[in-house]
Design brief:
By secondary structure, this protein is α/β, with parallel strands linked by helices. It contains 13 helices and 17 strands. The strands form 4 sheets. It has a 7-stranded mixed sheet, sandwiched between helices. Strands 3-4-5-16-17-14 form a 6-stranded antiparallel sheet. Strands 1-2 form a two-stranded antiparallel ribbon. 48% of the residues are buried. The structure holds pyridoxal-5'-phosphate.
């Protein structure tokens, strides 16, 4: 019982106060190392004085891992239609995709209810996040984002010369939009919002975010990363994309890596105002980086509604299974709107990773304000059973 209370306190202490100052960790959940990264003597990533990511053998031999639950991949993908498309067009890998890319952009534009000139493609959304983080900060400035949040864009902005204004999430793990708005100053070149947020899996209320973006985007562009939005039943209603036709300077990033199960095929896009896209296009041709077959796989995936429904349903079932079992073991968790769950653990993160890997299960581990956390991606139900069994053994 005491343990349960301690865990609960830890959860609440996610964003804690030190000496009267609210602090939260700098957090990066990029699946590969990206600059700038500081490491401690043991090779762990140091994101701030209050946060680090434990690193233990991040790329173990695949055959030594039975459940790969450390990269928020969709275990069911690519969709059957995407696989057929890949086979059908593999022989065209000698060609550059020009018209074909444009066709995909048209199709995405129709789905999003915008014009093709609002769309920019990239080899995964990472590329577009990072190129945006680069081009907007060539002359310095600052970027405002939540803390903790996904750090890919922010880290590249910092490497380019920007400073970062991290604004702690609220105690319910949503973005503190009022505080973020207050943090904007005359040097702010971009606000980055990840909704649902990685690593917390939490959502910020739709209407509040619409109001925030509508107001703030008149002063400074707002980048909204919707990588995990498709895991919601009503994703279309929760997107910020409708602000595009209202002329707002928002940049919305979407990816084929998550609900579509195409992480290794590398397709993503942003929806933005044409003038904003022109700025990003100064340093990248975006879609040129996408492999010809991936373009067809993305297009076929969009037609495979059945696969998306299945992914969403199985993902939700796995989340429920993990919640139930964590509760049984006396653990709390942050309720997730995504394909991963984060929760506090009572073991030093590196030792935890090592022990989980010995059980052939890969997860991620972090230290947040002195507490240790596990982030587990949703795999298949069999993989989640392995995870729970391994976790029970490791912490039991
Ligand atoms: C919030 C968020 N945005 C963007 C990405 C990048 O995904 P990709 O480059 O595969 O589109 C990820 C990957 O995990 C993510 O978690």
């Amino acid at each position: 019982m005491n343990n349960t209370i301690n865990r609960r306190n830890w959860l609440k202490a996610g964003l804690m106060t030190v000496g009267g100052i609210t602090v939260a960790p700098h957090m990066s959940l990029g699946e590969m190392a990206r600059a700038p990264l500081k490491r401690d003597a043991e090779g762990n990533f140091l994101y701030s004085p209050f946060f680090k990511e434990y690193i233990h053998n991040p790329f173990p031999e695949p055959k030594k891992i039975l459940a790969r639950l450390n990269a928020n991949e969709n275990p069911y993908g690519p969709s059957p239609k995407a696989l057929t498309a890949l086979k059908d067009v593999a022989h065209k890998g000698n060609r550059y995709a020009w018209r074909e890319l444009f066709d995909l952009m048209e199709k995405i534009a129709t789905k999003e209810g915008v014009s093709a000139e609002n769309i920019m493609m990239g080899p995964g959304s990472s590329d577009l996040l990072e190129k945006t983080g680069m081009v907007l900060f060539l002359e310095g400035g600052n970027v405002v984002s939540a803390d903790p949040s996904y750090m890919s864009l922010v880290r590249v902005a910092e490497a380019t010369g920007a400073s970062w204004k991290g604004v702690p999430l609220k105690s319910d793990w949503s973005h503190d939009l009022n505080a973020m708005e207050k943090a904007i100053d005359s040097d702010t070149k971009l606000v980055y919002i990840c909704n649902p947020n990685n690593p917390t899996g939490s959502m910020t209320a739709h209407s509040e975010l619409v109001d925030f973006c509508s107001r703030v985007a008149d002063k400074v562009p707002v980048f909204v990363d919707e990588a995990y939005l498709d895991f919601l039943e009503d994703a279309d209603k929760k997107s910020m994309v409708s602000l595009i036709n209202k002329g707002k300077d928002v940049i919305i990033a979407r990816t084929f890596s998550k609900i579509y199960g195409m992480a290794g095929l590398r397709v993503g896009y942003v929806v933005a105002q044409p003038e904003t896209l022109k700025k990003i296009q100064k340093i990248t041709r975006g879609g040129m980086g996408i492999a010809y077959p991936s373009i067809f796989a993305a297009s076929a995936s969009m037609d495979d509604a059945e696969f998306q429904v299945k992914s969403r349903k199985l993902n939700a079932e796995c989340r429920e299974y993990v919640y139930e079992n964590l509760e049984k073991m006396g653990y709390e968790y942050v309720p997730s709107s995504t394909s991963f769950i984060i929760f506090p653990i009572e073991m030093e993160g590196k030792a935890f990773l090592e022990k989980m890997q010995a059980q052939q299960v890969g997860v991620r581990a972090f230290e947040i304000n002195g507490g240790d956390w596990c982030r587990v991606s949703m795999g298949t139900m069999d993989e989640m059973k392995l995870f729970i069994k391994a976790f029970d053994k490791v912490v039991g």
